[in-house]
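Box 3.1. Reading complex inputs
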Amino acid sequence: MKRKKLLSFLLITALLLSGCSVSAMELSTTSEKKRAELTAKGKPFWETQPTKQAGETVTVAEYDRPLSYVLQYPKTGKPAIDSRIEAIVNDVRNAFAQEYLPPAAPNGETVRENKTEATLYLGYEAYLTEEKMLSLLFFDTTETTEGMSPHTRIQAFHFDLEQDQELLAEDLIWEGFAENASAYTRSYFTTAEPYCDRIFGNYNTLLAVENGLFDRFAFTSEGVLFHFDRYELFPGSMGIVSLLIPYEDMRAKAPIPEEEISQPVSDRKMVALTFDDGPNPIYTNQILDTLEKYDARATFFDLGHLVEKYPDVVKREDALGCEVASHSYDHKNFDKISDETILADLEKTDAAFRKVLGRSPNAFRPPYGNCSEHVKTLIPMPIYLWSVDTVDWKSRNANAIIHEVTKLGDLDGRVILMHGIYSATAEATAYLVPYLQEQGYELVTVSELIEAKHGETPENGKIYGYYYFQ
Ligand code: ZN
């Protein structure tokens, strides 16, 4: 199920390993020996793609109510390893059953009303090194009557196929392992397309060693493979993202991450609040009430068809000094439609803005943040993404939205993504505006922030992405 997507994101960087000798230290355990072999190897291991040589795949498909299971795992033919794998699968199964099984009624019968039906999906990838070391990655996710979970749990396990035993990750990694992975991923994801424009603004925190994202990995023939789940580092539309770090870089001294784009021009502390998907006659107006009360500015990325429907709300946004920008006509994914459809959409949206405000929108935010290198050449406006995602559309909870902002500490120069169509967002805004002002932040529009912080006049067709708004 997830395999195709995973593979398509898998970056294969074939690099010959430099001969690096390990001092003749005492190696007491198998894990330590394996580690020494891995780090001392002078040539690549022999698999990069997930291997089929880990054994046969066991498939379990049980369709039942309320719980169904679709599970795949390998059977290696090694008794100890296979029983450990079965235990891992059972753990996942039991945790799922505990979460979704209806509580038993006092008389011993199962209560079924109002209970969602759920399916557990478990898949795996196997990687084998030349030394017969097997790394297994398990991916599990659930689907309920409410839909597919946006999250996939990724778990990693390692085995010595020759010795028929499990190897613990903490025994396998070497000094500086997580630190090197942290520095490499930060440097890579903030410079390589398409990651650099999509990575969440707080990537330094997310990719810090303490955050644990480097605890789950696979040893492959060419390097250490890391997976990042949806919303861990990137918007959900990016799927699960994988990065293979060559062994050479995992051993080397940590590279210094690229310098941030430019030094702040202004010392004024600034934050730009942004509200997408409106205007909404109720909630946008509540947000505007707050902005008016505290004399604050924000940017609204409005949809053309709603601009036509609620012109008075748009006029009020404009009258309060807010930036009124475009979020397309009706929220199509610009990476998935033809150039003609994009141009027609832009024209229609432009007409809606001109009719209501007497001018074109001054900036654009693509629906879902999706804007390929090609699409951006079609946009006659600067393209503004964000650096803090409140995930308000998902939580619909004011406290959760507030927490997403306040937990970050320093917010200077950040652009905060919210949606002006939820009651919870309006409620959170009523708290956040005075809170941010008390912290000394000026609430400005995105264009103002770019000009003040970067000394730059926003350029048409340029994406101002996640790491721009730091
Ligand atoms: Zn949107």
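In summary: The chain has 17 helices and 18 strands.
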